[in-house]
Fold this sequence. Notes:
Blueprint: H1 9-16, H2 41-46, H3 69-84, H4 105-119, H5 128-140, H6 145-169, H7 173-198, H8 209-220, H9 227-230, H10 240-249, H11 260-272, E1 276-277, E2 281-283, E3 291-292, H12 294-297, H13 300-310
Antiparallel strand pairs: 1-2, 2-3
Amino acid sequence: MNHPRSSSVSDLLDAKDTDEGPGSGPGSGSVRRRRPESPSLLSRFRGPRAKTFDFRPLERPFSVLNLTESQKHEFLNDINALGAGLPQKSPTKTTLPHEGFSARNEEWRSVQTAIVSLFQQKKLSHMQLPNVRENVNDLVKSDVAPFIHVYYKDHLLKKGMVILRETIKRNEGQSMVNALGDVWSYFFSDILPIILVILHPIKTKELNVRQLTLVGFRDFVLLKTNFEEYLEDETICIPPSIEQMILVIQTVHDSQPANDNYLKVESMAARLVCPYIGVKGVYMGDKMPKYQSLKQQSSPKSLIQKAKSTG
């Protein structure tokens, strides 16, 4: 008595991957056609699918550190779209740095929402802060970690500073100076500490989160106002919060040599604190130093000025 041949697991898998029906076979006259494989997310990320559903690893493990600058820019745009709830392109190896990132959309969105809410002067709930901190810890452990710092710098920080600046731009004169002092006090005491708690797990070789946030306030809030003009007006009263703002911001050296924005704030500090020792030299209540530093004296710009004066 002939018993039907038992099907192996490999045969069953092969049959499942074809269009053969119940009556198909070698003698049925039907054409054996293989269904085109759907470009699933996992197969798209980890490589082509083998006949027995085994996954062949990539020759070079994928990492965001291996991306080119254009690929990093493309990926940051995709992160921005994920946070805003916009449609994105189908994920690829260059746009999907972590196989489970699609499952982390809610985690990343919660981090963005929390940070923007702080700049909108909204308090986080009792359980929201630890949950957001935990989400950041999870994201830092994934391949997306190097981009969190970049995205905060290029998107979230700028958006937050624009929100703060809008409350100042409506005022002029003494009202503007007072509004700037109030915004700084709230930012320094209520916003900055919470941001440091949320983004504490992020480690970088460049400016840390505190320094980066202070530089953002300098570039996108302070220097976007006409505050420097009011320093020349003797009728304007400068509140203590403004002096604190200038001196705290000046502790951050974001470039070597000092850039123009740093030197602009140094000039402001020199008119509020006398005497004041800065990068350019010793100030005695004026916006220009009375005694230049040796570096400034030997700089190409200073040498040209000396040559012109002696010639």
